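Re: the 246-residue chain
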Amino acid sequence: MTATIQSLWRHPIKAHGREALDEVALIAGQCLPGDRVWAVAHEAAKVDSTEWVKCGNFTRAAGSPQLMAISARTEGDRLVLMHPDRPDLRFDPETDEAPFLDWVRPLMPEGRAAPARIIRVPGVGMTDSSWPSLTLCNMATHRAVEQKLGRNLSIHRWRGNIWFDGFPDWAEFDWIGKQVKIGEAILQVRERTTRCLATTANPETGQRDADTLGALEQNWGHKDFSVKAEVIQGGQVRVGDRLELL
């Protein structure tokens, strides 16, 4: 059985914007290129710029749902962030930290640790796993969650990297320890992705409006959606490519 790649997404700044791709060159032992390159450390964080640290050190949509409504566009060495309640911001995350912090602060709820600085660890993606992961998301599983909630949901609630269609819902959970071939690349599927409150927020409005976690727990006995995989053989991946379970 095979599936077809429906869309490719990266999130240049962890929890601060999504960007669509038509194709991407995956590299063995690395995250999806351009994904979670930066993260926003909050004022209570204990981090430096030399190693991966846990997500609790960063401002995230789990506690700041308005961040879910940010989208992104790369323009050379500049990044453009867009939000329905803020003017577009065009900046260089390496050098324009102050304008970014001024732009994002109004999106933070009262009582949360304020964003303090942009962090980058060279060669390390700031995903929620300490190893170089990307997420594989099954459209059939997404539709199953929609059916239980009785409403349409944006796929952006899950902040996934590679979306495919053609396998039954939840089939991806049986892939742990197995390999998949996508376009020219081969990935090792390593673990399920446990979800947080970020998925309850609408990516168009930044408002919490769907009990995604409740639907997962009540109907399937867990709070997991998608699987994390590691690139073991690099290669070009394009929208429309075939995904094959090896």
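The mean pLDDT is 96.
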